[in-house]
Amino acid sequence: MTVSSDVIVVGGGAVGASVAYELVKRGVAVTIIERDSIASHASGFAYGGLFPTMGAGIPGPVVRHAKRGISLHKRLAPELEDATGIDVELRAVRSLDLAADEDGFRDLEKSLAWLSEEELEAELLDGDDVRRLEPALGGDLTGALIQRSHFELDSYKYTLALVTAFERAGGMHMPGDVVGLVRVGDRVAGVRLRSGDEVPSGAVVLATGPWAGTGDGLPNFPVKPKKGEILRMRFPGRDFVHRVSLGGHYIARKPDGLVWGGSTEEDAGFDDRPSTSARDSIMAGILALAPALEAAEIVQHTACLRPVSVDDFPIIGALPGYENLFAANGAGKKGILLSPVMGRMVAGAITGDPGRDPIPDEFDAARFDYT
Ligand SMILES: Cc1cc2nc3c(=O)[nH]c(=O)nc-3n(C[C@H](O)[C@H](O)[C@H](O)COP(=O)(O)OP(=O)(O)OC[C@H]3O[C@@H](n4cnc5c(N)ncnc54)[C@H](O)[C@@H]3O)c2cc1C
To answer: What average pLDDT does the structure give for the chain?
Structure first.
Protein backbone atom coordinates (compact mmCIF):
# COMPACT_ATOMS: atom_id res chain seq x y z
CA MET A 1 0.00 0.00 0.00
CA THR A 2 1.41 3.35 -0.96
CA VAL A 3 -1.14 5.57 0.81
CA SER A 4 0.38 7.25 3.85
CA SER A 5 -1.29 9.82 6.09
CA ASP A 6 -0.64 11.67 9.28
CA VAL A 7 -3.90 10.22 10.57
CA ILE A 8 -6.23 7.36 9.56
CA VAL A 9 -9.84 7.67 10.69
CA VAL A 10 -11.55 4.27 10.70
CA GLY A 11 -15.30 4.71 10.10
CA GLY A 12 -17.23 6.98 7.77
CA GLY A 13 -20.22 7.78 9.99
CA ALA A 14 -21.01 11.25 11.33
CA VAL A 15 -18.44 10.99 14.11
CA GLY A 16 -15.52 9.78 11.98
CA ALA A 17 -16.44 12.28 9.24
CA SER A 18 -16.46 15.12 11.74
CA VAL A 19 -13.08 14.16 13.22
CA ALA A 20 -11.60 13.89 9.70
CA TYR A 21 -13.05 17.24 8.58
CA GLU A 22 -11.78 19.05 11.69
CA LEU A 23 -8.30 17.55 11.24
CA VAL A 24 -8.03 18.43 7.54
CA LYS A 25 -9.09 22.02 8.35
CA ARG A 26 -6.09 22.13 10.72
CA GLY A 27 -3.74 21.11 7.89
CA VAL A 28 -3.41 17.42 8.83
CA ALA A 29 -3.20 14.77 6.04
CA VAL A 30 -6.07 12.36 6.75
CA THR A 31 -7.49 9.19 5.19
CA ILE A 32 -10.93 7.86 6.10
CA ILE A 33 -11.17 4.07 5.79
CA GLU A 34 -14.75 2.78 5.61
CA ARG A 35 -15.74 -0.82 4.85
CA ASP A 36 -19.26 -0.13 3.60
CA SER A 37 -20.13 3.31 2.27
CA ILE A 38 -20.26 6.76 3.85
CA ALA A 39 -23.26 7.18 6.19
CA SER A 40 -24.55 3.69 5.40
CA HIS A 41 -25.41 2.93 9.04
CA ALA A 42 -26.97 4.95 11.90
CA SER A 43 -25.51 8.23 10.65
CA GLY A 44 -27.46 7.95 7.42
CA PHE A 45 -30.81 6.98 8.95
CA ALA A 46 -31.00 8.83 12.27
CA TYR A 47 -33.87 11.23 12.82
CA GLY A 48 -31.36 14.11 12.89
CA GLY A 49 -32.74 15.79 15.98
CA LEU A 50 -30.54 18.34 17.71
CA PHE A 51 -32.25 18.33 21.09
CA PRO A 52 -30.36 19.67 24.12
CA THR A 53 -33.25 18.80 26.45
CA MET A 54 -33.32 15.00 26.47
CA GLY A 55 -31.04 11.98 26.61
CA ALA A 56 -28.27 10.50 28.73
CA GLY A 57 -26.61 13.06 31.00
CA ILE A 58 -29.46 15.57 30.47
CA PRO A 59 -30.16 17.34 32.76
CA GLY A 60 -26.54 16.99 33.85
CA PRO A 61 -23.06 17.24 32.38
CA VAL A 62 -24.09 16.65 28.76
CA VAL A 63 -26.27 19.78 28.51
CA ARG A 64 -23.35 22.12 27.88
CA HIS A 65 -21.94 19.82 25.16
CA ALA A 66 -25.38 19.57 23.55
CA LYS A 67 -25.69 23.38 23.50
CA ARG A 68 -22.20 23.63 22.03
CA GLY A 69 -23.23 21.03 19.42
CA ILE A 70 -26.14 23.19 18.31
CA SER A 71 -24.04 26.33 18.03
CA LEU A 72 -21.42 24.44 16.00
CA HIS A 73 -24.11 22.96 13.72
CA LYS A 74 -25.43 26.49 13.05
CA ARG A 75 -21.97 27.51 11.93
CA LEU A 76 -21.27 24.30 10.01
CA ALA A 77 -24.44 24.14 7.91
CA PRO A 78 -23.64 27.25 5.79
CA GLU A 79 -19.92 26.38 5.77
CA LEU A 80 -20.67 22.92 4.34
CA GLU A 81 -23.15 24.31 1.82
CA ASP A 82 -20.53 26.82 0.58
CA ALA A 83 -17.90 24.09 0.30
CA THR A 84 -20.07 21.36 -1.28
CA GLY A 85 -23.42 22.73 -2.46
CA ILE A 86 -25.16 20.27 -0.10
CA ASP A 87 -27.95 21.77 2.01
CA VAL A 88 -28.06 19.74 5.22
CA GLU A 89 -31.55 21.12 5.92
CA LEU A 90 -30.75 22.52 9.35
CA ARG A 91 -33.86 24.19 10.77
CA ALA A 92 -35.47 25.15 14.04
CA VAL A 93 -38.35 22.88 15.08
CA ARG A 94 -40.97 23.21 17.76
CA SER A 95 -41.41 20.07 19.84
CA LEU A 96 -44.46 19.22 21.92
CA ASP A 97 -43.73 16.85 24.82
CA LEU A 98 -47.22 15.64 25.64
CA ALA A 99 -48.73 14.77 29.02
CA ALA A 100 -51.64 12.29 29.04
CA ASP A 101 -52.55 12.75 32.73
CA GLU A 102 -51.91 14.89 35.83
CA ASP A 103 -48.76 12.94 36.79
CA GLY A 104 -47.37 13.47 33.32
CA PHE A 105 -48.14 17.19 33.52
CA ARG A 106 -46.34 17.44 36.88
CA ASP A 107 -43.27 15.85 35.25
CA LEU A 108 -43.41 18.52 32.53
CA GLU A 109 -43.59 21.22 35.23
CA LYS A 110 -40.43 19.77 36.80
CA SER A 111 -38.71 19.77 33.39
CA LEU A 112 -39.66 23.40 32.89
CA ALA A 113 -37.84 24.32 36.10
CA TRP A 114 -34.45 22.98 35.01
CA LEU A 115 -34.92 24.13 31.41
CA SER A 116 -35.42 27.68 32.67
CA GLU A 117 -32.24 27.45 34.77
CA GLU A 118 -30.37 26.36 31.62
CA GLU A 119 -31.99 29.14 29.57
CA LEU A 120 -33.53 26.57 27.23
CA GLU A 121 -36.74 28.18 26.07
CA ALA A 122 -39.93 26.21 26.79
CA GLU A 123 -43.52 26.86 27.87
CA LEU A 124 -46.38 24.81 29.32
CA LEU A 125 -49.58 24.53 27.28
CA ASP A 126 -52.94 23.12 28.31
CA GLY A 127 -54.75 20.39 26.35
CA ASP A 128 -56.87 22.85 24.33
CA ASP A 129 -53.78 24.82 23.24
CA VAL A 130 -52.14 21.59 22.13
CA ARG A 131 -55.14 20.49 20.07
CA ARG A 132 -55.30 23.92 18.44
CA LEU A 133 -51.66 23.51 17.34
CA GLU A 134 -52.01 19.86 16.28
CA PRO A 135 -55.69 19.04 15.62
CA ALA A 136 -54.93 15.46 14.52
CA LEU A 137 -53.83 14.46 18.03
CA GLY A 138 -56.29 12.13 19.75
CA GLY A 139 -56.66 10.40 23.10
CA ASP A 140 -56.31 12.00 26.53
CA LEU A 141 -54.22 15.14 26.60
CA THR A 142 -53.61 17.12 29.77
CA GLY A 143 -51.11 19.47 28.18
CA ALA A 144 -47.64 19.73 26.73
CA LEU A 145 -44.31 21.42 27.04
CA ILE A 146 -43.47 23.30 23.87
CA GLN A 147 -39.71 23.33 23.34
CA ARG A 148 -38.18 26.23 21.46
CA SER A 149 -34.53 25.17 21.72
CA HIS A 150 -34.78 22.30 19.25
CA PHE A 151 -33.23 22.02 15.80
CA GLU A 152 -32.94 19.22 13.29
CA LEU A 153 -31.21 18.35 10.03
CA ASP A 154 -30.96 15.57 7.50
CA SER A 155 -28.37 13.27 9.03
CA TYR A 156 -27.47 11.55 5.74
CA LYS A 157 -26.90 14.84 3.89
CA TYR A 158 -24.96 16.17 6.88
CA THR A 159 -22.55 13.20 6.97
CA LEU A 160 -22.16 13.21 3.20
CA ALA A 161 -21.47 16.97 3.23
CA LEU A 162 -18.77 16.54 5.89
CA VAL A 163 -16.97 13.90 3.82
CA THR A 164 -17.37 15.88 0.58
CA ALA A 165 -15.97 19.03 2.24
CA PHE A 166 -13.18 16.91 3.73
CA GLU A 167 -12.23 15.54 0.30
CA ARG A 168 -12.39 19.00 -1.31
CA ALA A 169 -9.98 20.21 1.38
CA GLY A 170 -7.51 17.46 0.40
CA GLY A 171 -8.64 14.53 2.55
CA MET A 172 -8.75 10.98 1.17
CA HIS A 173 -11.36 8.29 1.51
CA MET A 174 -10.62 4.65 0.75
CA PRO A 175 -12.65 1.46 1.09
CA GLY A 176 -11.31 -1.13 3.51
CA ASP A 177 -12.23 -3.37 6.39
CA VAL A 178 -9.83 -2.68 9.24
CA VAL A 179 -9.06 -5.84 11.21
CA GLY A 180 -6.01 -4.83 13.19
CA LEU A 181 -3.41 -2.25 14.10
CA VAL A 182 0.16 -2.03 12.88
CA ARG A 183 2.17 -1.66 16.10
CA VAL A 184 5.76 -0.92 16.92
CA GLY A 185 5.79 -1.67 20.66
CA ASP A 186 3.08 0.52 22.21
CA ARG A 187 3.16 2.86 19.21
CA VAL A 188 0.41 2.53 16.62
CA ALA A 189 1.84 3.04 13.13
CA GLY A 190 -1.13 2.21 10.89
CA VAL A 191 -3.88 -0.33 10.30
CA ARG A 192 -4.18 -3.80 8.80
CA LEU A 193 -7.00 -4.52 6.36
CA ARG A 194 -8.88 -7.79 5.84
CA SER A 195 -7.24 -7.93 2.39
CA GLY A 196 -3.90 -8.32 4.16
CA ASP A 197 -2.68 -4.85 3.15
CA GLU A 198 -1.20 -2.55 5.75
CA VAL A 199 -1.82 1.20 5.61
CA PRO A 200 0.79 3.25 7.47
CA SER A 201 -0.03 6.41 9.40
CA GLY A 202 1.23 8.57 12.22
CA ALA A 203 -1.94 8.07 14.29
CA VAL A 204 -5.24 6.18 14.13
CA VAL A 205 -8.71 7.25 15.23
CA LEU A 206 -11.27 4.49 15.82
CA ALA A 207 -14.72 5.85 14.95
CA THR A 208 -16.24 2.46 14.25
CA GLY A 209 -19.61 3.00 15.93
CA PRO A 210 -21.24 -0.04 17.52
CA TRP A 211 -18.67 -2.36 15.93
CA ALA A 212 -15.89 -1.00 18.16
CA GLY A 213 -13.82 -3.88 19.34
CA THR A 214 -15.24 -6.52 17.01
CA GLY A 215 -12.16 -6.57 14.74
CA ASP A 216 -9.60 -9.27 15.63
CA GLY A 217 -6.74 -6.96 16.48
CA LEU A 218 -8.61 -3.85 17.63
CA PRO A 219 -8.96 -2.84 21.28
CA ASN A 220 -12.11 -3.90 23.05
CA PHE A 221 -14.38 -0.88 23.68
CA PRO A 222 -17.17 -0.95 26.29
CA VAL A 223 -19.70 -0.11 23.56
CA LYS A 224 -22.78 -2.11 22.55
CA PRO A 225 -25.26 -1.79 19.69
CA LYS A 226 -28.77 -0.55 20.58
CA LYS A 227 -31.10 -1.18 17.66
CA GLY A 228 -33.57 1.53 16.65
CA GLU A 229 -36.27 1.52 13.96
CA ILE A 230 -38.19 4.34 12.27
CA LEU A 231 -41.16 4.45 9.86
CA ARG A 232 -41.53 7.10 7.15
CA MET A 233 -45.12 7.64 6.04
CA ARG A 234 -47.07 9.48 3.40
CA PHE A 235 -49.86 11.46 5.09
CA PRO A 236 -50.86 14.53 3.08
CA GLY A 237 -51.72 17.73 4.92
CA ARG A 238 -50.11 20.04 7.43
CA ASP A 239 -50.45 17.98 10.62
CA PHE A 240 -47.36 17.25 12.71
CA VAL A 241 -45.32 20.30 11.75
CA HIS A 242 -44.57 20.17 15.48
CA ARG A 243 -42.64 17.13 16.57
CA VAL A 244 -44.92 15.48 19.11
CA SER A 245 -43.72 12.91 21.61
CA LEU A 246 -45.11 10.83 24.43
CA GLY A 247 -43.76 7.77 26.23
CA GLY A 248 -40.87 7.03 23.88
CA HIS A 249 -42.86 7.53 20.67
CA TYR A 250 -42.77 10.52 18.37
CA ILE A 251 -44.36 11.83 15.18
CA ALA A 252 -42.83 14.56 13.03
CA ARG A 253 -43.11 15.89 9.49
CA LYS A 254 -39.83 16.37 7.61
CA PRO A 255 -39.24 19.06 4.94
CA ASP A 256 -39.94 16.55 2.12
CA GLY A 257 -43.48 16.13 3.52
CA LEU A 258 -43.02 12.59 4.87
CA VAL A 259 -44.16 11.98 8.42
CA TRP A 260 -41.65 10.05 10.55
CA GLY A 261 -42.80 7.81 13.39
CA GLY A 262 -40.41 6.31 15.88
CA SER A 263 -38.78 4.65 17.48
CA THR A 264 -37.58 1.52 19.26
CA GLU A 265 -34.71 0.59 21.55
CA GLU A 266 -33.65 -3.03 21.47
CA ASP A 267 -30.63 -5.17 22.35
CA ALA A 268 -30.47 -7.34 19.23
CA GLY A 269 -26.73 -7.77 18.74
CA PHE A 270 -25.64 -6.71 15.27
CA ASP A 271 -28.96 -7.52 13.61
CA ASP A 272 -29.89 -4.35 11.76
CA ARG A 273 -32.80 -5.66 9.69
CA PRO A 274 -36.22 -3.98 10.00
CA SER A 275 -38.65 -6.20 11.90
CA THR A 276 -42.43 -6.56 11.81
CA SER A 277 -42.55 -6.52 15.62
CA ALA A 278 -40.87 -3.07 15.71
CA ARG A 279 -43.18 -1.80 12.96
CA ASP A 280 -46.23 -2.98 14.93
CA SER A 281 -44.99 -1.48 18.19
CA ILE A 282 -44.23 1.90 16.56
CA MET A 283 -47.64 1.91 14.85
CA ALA A 284 -49.41 1.04 18.13
CA GLY A 285 -47.56 3.85 19.93
CA ILE A 286 -48.20 6.54 17.35
CA LEU A 287 -51.82 5.53 16.68
CA ALA A 288 -52.50 5.97 20.40
CA LEU A 289 -51.27 9.55 19.93
CA ALA A 290 -52.84 10.22 16.55
CA PRO A 291 -55.50 7.75 15.35
CA ALA A 292 -55.72 9.66 12.04
CA LEU A 293 -52.42 8.06 11.04
CA GLU A 294 -54.34 4.85 10.42
CA ALA A 295 -54.73 6.26 6.89
CA ALA A 296 -50.98 6.85 6.44
CA GLU A 297 -49.01 4.82 3.90
CA ILE A 298 -45.67 3.48 5.12
CA VAL A 299 -43.11 4.24 2.41
CA GLN A 300 -39.88 3.36 4.21
CA HIS A 301 -38.94 1.35 7.29
CA THR A 302 -35.35 1.60 8.53
CA ALA A 303 -33.36 -0.07 11.27
CA CYS A 304 -29.88 0.72 12.52
CA LEU A 305 -27.62 0.48 15.54
CA ARG A 306 -26.73 3.21 18.05
CA PRO A 307 -23.27 2.90 19.61
CA VAL A 308 -24.02 2.98 23.35
CA SER A 309 -21.22 2.98 25.91
CA VAL A 310 -21.47 1.22 29.25
CA ASP A 311 -21.92 4.54 31.14
CA ASP A 312 -23.95 6.17 28.30
CA PHE A 313 -21.36 8.89 27.63
CA PRO A 314 -19.15 9.28 24.56
CA ILE A 315 -15.63 7.83 24.64
CA ILE A 316 -13.13 10.31 23.26
CA GLY A 317 -9.38 10.80 23.06
CA ALA A 318 -6.13 8.89 23.57
CA LEU A 319 -6.47 5.23 24.56
CA PRO A 320 -4.41 4.33 27.61
CA GLY A 321 -1.83 1.62 26.88
CA TYR A 322 -1.31 2.79 23.29
CA GLU A 323 0.59 5.63 21.68
CA ASN A 324 -1.11 7.53 18.85
CA LEU A 325 -4.40 5.65 19.08
CA PHE A 326 -7.58 7.68 19.65
CA ALA A 327 -11.26 6.93 20.21
CA ALA A 328 -14.31 8.75 18.87
CA ASN A 329 -17.24 6.62 19.86
CA GLY A 330 -20.13 5.88 22.20
CA ALA A 331 -22.40 8.80 21.27
CA GLY A 332 -25.48 6.58 21.70
CA LYS A 333 -28.67 8.48 20.86
CA LYS A 334 -26.91 11.82 20.35
CA GLY A 335 -24.21 11.17 17.76
CA ILE A 336 -25.55 13.59 15.17
CA LEU A 337 -25.93 16.41 17.69
CA LEU A 338 -22.58 15.79 19.39
CA SER A 339 -20.51 14.93 16.31
CA PRO A 340 -19.15 18.48 15.71
CA VAL A 341 -18.10 18.71 19.37
CA MET A 342 -16.57 15.23 19.33
CA GLY A 343 -14.75 16.05 16.07
CA ARG A 344 -13.20 19.17 17.55
CA MET A 345 -12.29 17.41 20.81
CA VAL A 346 -10.46 14.59 19.02
CA ALA A 347 -8.78 16.94 16.51
CA GLY A 348 -7.64 19.11 19.41
CA ALA A 349 -6.20 16.11 21.27
CA ILE A 350 -4.28 14.93 18.19
CA THR A 351 -2.88 18.33 17.25
CA GLY A 352 -2.21 19.35 20.87
CA ASP A 353 -4.35 22.46 20.44
CA PRO A 354 -7.78 21.86 22.00
CA GLY A 355 -8.84 25.52 21.85
CA ARG A 356 -12.40 25.89 23.20
CA ASP A 357 -13.04 22.14 23.12
CA PRO A 358 -10.80 20.19 25.49
CA ILE A 359 -11.93 16.64 26.29
CA PRO A 360 -13.98 16.74 29.52
CA ASP A 361 -13.44 14.06 32.18
CA GLU A 362 -16.90 12.59 31.57
CA PHE A 363 -16.02 11.79 27.92
CA ASP A 364 -12.33 10.95 28.39
CA ALA A 365 -11.36 7.54 26.93
CA ALA A 366 -8.89 7.17 29.83
CA ARG A 367 -11.78 6.23 32.18
CA PHE A 368 -11.84 2.69 30.70
CA ASP A 369 -9.39 -0.17 30.26
CA TYR A 370 -9.04 -1.52 26.69
CA THR A 371 -6.89 -4.59 27.18
C1 LIG B 1 -33.35 5.14 15.16
C2 LIG B 1 -32.25 6.12 15.49
C3 LIG B 1 -32.53 7.48 15.61
C4 LIG B 1 -31.52 8.38 15.96
N5 LIG B 1 -31.83 9.69 16.08
C6 LIG B 1 -30.86 10.57 16.44
C7 LIG B 1 -31.15 11.95 16.56
O8 LIG B 1 -32.29 12.37 16.35
N9 LIG B 1 -30.15 12.80 16.93
C10 LIG B 1 -28.88 12.36 17.19
O11 LIG B 1 -28.02 13.17 17.54
N12 LIG B 1 -28.56 11.04 17.07
C13 LIG B 1 -29.52 10.15 16.72
N14 LIG B 1 -29.23 8.82 16.62
C15 LIG B 1 -27.89 8.36 17.02
C16 LIG B 1 -26.88 8.54 15.89
O17 LIG B 1 -27.40 7.99 14.71
C18 LIG B 1 -25.57 7.84 16.26
O19 LIG B 1 -25.15 8.23 17.54
C20 LIG B 1 -24.48 8.22 15.24
O21 LIG B 1 -24.92 8.02 13.94
C22 LIG B 1 -23.22 7.40 15.52
O23 LIG B 1 -22.28 7.77 14.54
P24 LIG B 1 -20.92 6.97 14.40
O25 LIG B 1 -20.13 7.63 13.36
O26 LIG B 1 -20.31 6.81 15.77
O27 LIG B 1 -21.37 5.49 13.99
P28 LIG B 1 -21.90 4.89 12.59
O29 LIG B 1 -22.82 5.80 11.90
O30 LIG B 1 -22.39 3.52 12.93
O31 LIG B 1 -20.59 4.79 11.71
C32 LIG B 1 -19.55 3.88 12.01
C33 LIG B 1 -18.94 3.46 10.70
O34 LIG B 1 -17.77 2.69 10.95
C35 LIG B 1 -17.69 1.70 9.95
N36 LIG B 1 -16.83 0.62 10.47
C37 LIG B 1 -17.04 -0.11 11.59
N38 LIG B 1 -16.04 -0.97 11.78
C39 LIG B 1 -15.17 -0.79 10.74
C40 LIG B 1 -13.95 -1.40 10.39
N41 LIG B 1 -13.40 -2.37 11.15
N42 LIG B 1 -13.31 -0.99 9.25
C43 LIG B 1 -13.86 0.00 8.48
N44 LIG B 1 -15.03 0.61 8.77
C45 LIG B 1 -15.67 0.21 9.90
C46 LIG B 1 -19.12 1.26 9.73
O47 LIG B 1 -19.28 0.63 8.48
C48 LIG B 1 -19.86 2.58 9.86
O49 LIG B 1 -20.06 3.19 8.60
C50 LIG B 1 -30.20 7.90 16.22
C51 LIG B 1 -29.91 6.54 16.05
C52 LIG B 1 -30.91 5.66 15.70
C53 LIG B 1 -30.58 4.20 15.53
So the answer is: 96
